[in-house]
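User: Small ask, check this?
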Amino acid sequence: MIPQRFLPKNHRRILTYLVAGVLIAAVTLYLALPIVALFLRMTPDLFFATLHDPNVASALWLSLFTTVISLSVVILVGTPFAYFHSKYSYPGKVVVDTLIDLPLVLPPAVAGVALLVLYGRIGILGRYFNMLGISIAFTTLAVIMAQIFVASPFYLRQAKSLFEQLDPAYEQTARTLGASSMRTLVQVTIPMTATGLVSGAVMTFGRALGEFGATIMFAGNLPGVTQTMPLAVYVGMEGSNINAGLTISILLVIISFGIMIAVRLIQKREADRA
């Protein structure tokens, strides 16, 4: 093969474009073909018919319900947490930063085991809840707790970064006018970072909706109680109801694609405003 430096300039450009085209096509096809295969495997009639399956409908509504609750908790608790965490220095802040990021790299199944060891019926805290007649593991509450654990870092990291990057002059002006830290957060900081916060919330929603490992370990797989859409896919594909597994998989792909489009549009709008 002739070294590239000995080729004419226009030939080198063509070779570069050819290599780039092959790489782009290969990566795109590798990522797209499995998704395309899902849609080719199901006919529209079969897809919509399977949506009426009670197990599919139950998993869909349970997933949406728990994910909305999880996202609400993350936003209500995570926003003020990220604000105060980003604005103040305190002992152990580096450790807190590490713990925020840990669920991103921690295997979900390990996260589920950790939650079970802590909140299970004979867990470190769970045994005391059990004495009071409160059961957490293998309930719908456990699904929500698992989703919050694995998905909250997406929002917390985004919110913390936005609050750190915001020009402090705006908040200082509000405090000069007598606004408290909480009032400044609500009336100044959040409105000025709202677009980025929405982007983080959308990503958190998508991660919580697709949670599998921590949920099955901590909440189990009880139809109508803890069986979310990813768990229903697992049951359908390992059992005889493959159509249900494929239908839910397609639903998750559509929702995930919509989430990514929404994030791209939000980021583009923010970039245009800047």
User: Anything to note?
Assistant: Residues 1-40 form one domain.
